[in-house]
């Protein structure tokens, strides 16, 4: 639906602040542009405002600098909203929208999760150490939205039980207290998420969606903003095998945002229940791995065992995109039927035998890959 409005101005997926500014500049006649403040390294953080409706929506993306698909999807949505489409005009009759694309421009510049003083903005909702956190907090106070959309990307290795693909989109209705109670506001966010999930499944085939567990994190922005009575939804863009730059995910992401806005506008979410939300599969960290070698002959003295070996990139620093990591480690050894992989090789008929002293969990996997003549 939204692919027609994909913004074509990004040179590659590691988008920079200057490119966001260029988009904002091109939209000066379509949106009210508000400078909210500056990042630590003096990059301007802008909000784009549009719509005359009574329901107020605040969306912010990329508080983690290495999560650019959230910003690309948000900008595609804005590109649609500023179009002449009747569907866009209908939304803007009912909604007032403020969007903050790229809340962490300093992190984005270096493609890092944290900001210029290495603070994770999503753990800074209480203390507000960083100017970027203060900007978001002030935006929630000044604009006082009915809904808050907290937009992120996640690692490629997330999956669901029995899923044939990694998680493509995941969602969370954050808890507002440690008991994880469900009040009316939180219930509505669950209904909205359930609706997005059903729309995604209807519009796209073979979709894998998930929901995060809701352990309360008071210093995370989603939880904090939800606790202020703003109906808050976390979106996380995931991965499709082979879609390294995540441009297919970008399409699912922008459509998820559009479904959410439409559902809120026409109150379609009322059709769905908390149970529908609970039925979305749980998002499981490291459910996927890059490679599983099945039935590898493993020697220990004169004994021989058949084990599966899972191998993945060595993620050490919250890398959401692992394109620059070339080191592989042994993720796990044993029965790997609980995991799935981007690539699976059955070694039953291979003559290669591994000595048990040569493999250890979390050790470098280069030698092993060389022995099997596998290039990842
Ligand atoms: Zn994030």
Task: Please give a structural write-up.
The longest helix has 20 residues, at 184-203. 47% of the residues are buried. The chain is globular and about 75 Å long. The chain has an eight-stranded mixed beta sheet, with helices on both faces. Strands 9, 10, 11, 12 and 13 form a five-stranded mixed beta sheet that branches. α2 (68-81) crosses α8 (247-265) and α6 crosses α8. With 376 residues, it is an alpha/beta fold. A hairpin with a 5-residue loop joins β1 (32-38) and β2. It has helices spanning 17-26, 68-81, 86-94, 105-109, 131-143, 184-203, 221-227, 247-265, 274-278, 366-371; strands at residues 32-38, 44-50, 55-61, 95-100, 147-153, 169-172, 209-211, 231-237, 288-300, 303-313, 328-334, 340-346, 353-355. It has two domains: 3-278, Zn peptidases (Aminopeptidase), CATH 3.40.630; 288-371, Urease, subunit C, domain 1 (Roll). The protein contains ten helices and 13 strands. Zinc ion is lined by residues 64, 67, 152.
Short key terms for the protein model shown above:
binds zinc ion, 10 helices, alpha/beta, 376 residues, 24% strand, Urease, subunit C, domain 1, 8-stranded mixed beta sheet, Aminopeptidase, 29% helix
SSE order and pairing:
Elements: H1 17-26, E1 32-38, E2 44-50, E3 55-61, H2 68-81, H3 86-94, E4 95-100, H4 105-109, H5 131-143, E5 147-153, E6 169-172, H6 184-203, E7 209-211, H7 221-227, E8 231-237, H8 247-265, H9 274-278, E9 288-300, E10 303-313, E11 328-334, E12 340-346, E13 353-355, H10 366-371
Parallel strand pairs: 3-4, 3-5, 5-8, 6-7, 9-12, 9-13
Antiparallel strand pairs: 1-2, 2-4, 6-8, 9-10, 10-11
Bound molecules: zinc ion.
